[in-house]
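I am writing to request your help with a piece of structural work I have in hand. The matter concerns a single protein, recorded as an amino acid sequence and a row of backbone structure tokens. Could you please explain, in whatever detail you think fit, how the structure tokens follow from the sequence? Thank you for your consideration; the sequence and its tokens are set out here:
>
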Amino acid sequence: MIPIQIIRNSISELAAITRTDISIFDPGGQSIVTTGGGALDGDIIRSFVTSPADSQTIGAEHLLKVADDGEVAYIVVSVGGDSDDAHMAGRIAASQIQNLLVAYREKLDRNGFFQNLILDNLLLVDVYNRARKLHIETSVPRVVILVETGGDKDVAALELLRSMYSHHGGDYVTAVDERNIILIKSLAADEGYEHIAQIASTIVDMMNMEALLNVRVAYGTIVAELRDVSKSYKEAMMAMDVGKIFYIERSVNAYNTLGIGRLIYQLPAKLCRMFIDEIFCDVNPHAIDEEILTSVSKFFENSLNVSETARQLFVHRNTLVYRIEKLEASTGLDIRTFDDALTFKIAMMVVSYMRYLETVSF
């Protein structure tokens, strides 16, 4: 149904212009909106609803039905000094509400369509048939952008995103659950991943400034056909998960830039456990000193350069070497060599993935 505030605004403007009092009732005879005048009670309204007539005049009051899919949805009552003017004002009001009903029905239909589309709940023939009825272009480049709000102020975040991207521009915004919002973004032919990255960064900044939210954003690959939107959605979901496991420092993650994190994410848990046991043997990777891990992370960032890493950590070069050798003593890996550095890097990423799986299982 139409929000009451929308009806009130529409009817109030019309009543002021036509100098006619207009009231809107539901089929049960309950007054929804009124600008004054008239004295019809609920029994008269209910009697009119069940009558075969579409309009009726009772004294100075004119009644008109507004139907939605064959069922009476609203009753419009108009009354004014000039009977003809009042009747005309009532007809205009009924027409406005009828148009609002169509618009809101289409909005709800679009919502259901896109939610079923991304969840693969539609047959291919239904995708194109319903898209045609809803006036949705089928051969436009699109990408799914996923915004995780964490469940805090999700309504405010949803409205903010809808104000930024309207379906009039070919975009669509919907809530997946209490934590995630989806933006299905239409793209021009010359808009690629650089443009999408800018959009994602803008969303993060706007959510922070306007809704005071620290959100995470992920997006899939660009698809050329409407039927493939679900593919981009699944990729965005994976990018969100992989980002939270391996790239926690990033607020934006793209499916096509996940690198080795995407590969590890798709490995069977049993294989990951075997790999960890093979690399660490009797060593508990969770027990490795946090100071050592921080130093190693910075060491990797500086392409295994000991001197530069020591400078950025504000420690003596020998202190860093001592930490590296301490790690070697416990794991047997000398991360100053490329092969061992790569092995340790991958092993720690697998450890992070296993920790994530334990959290999900719990």
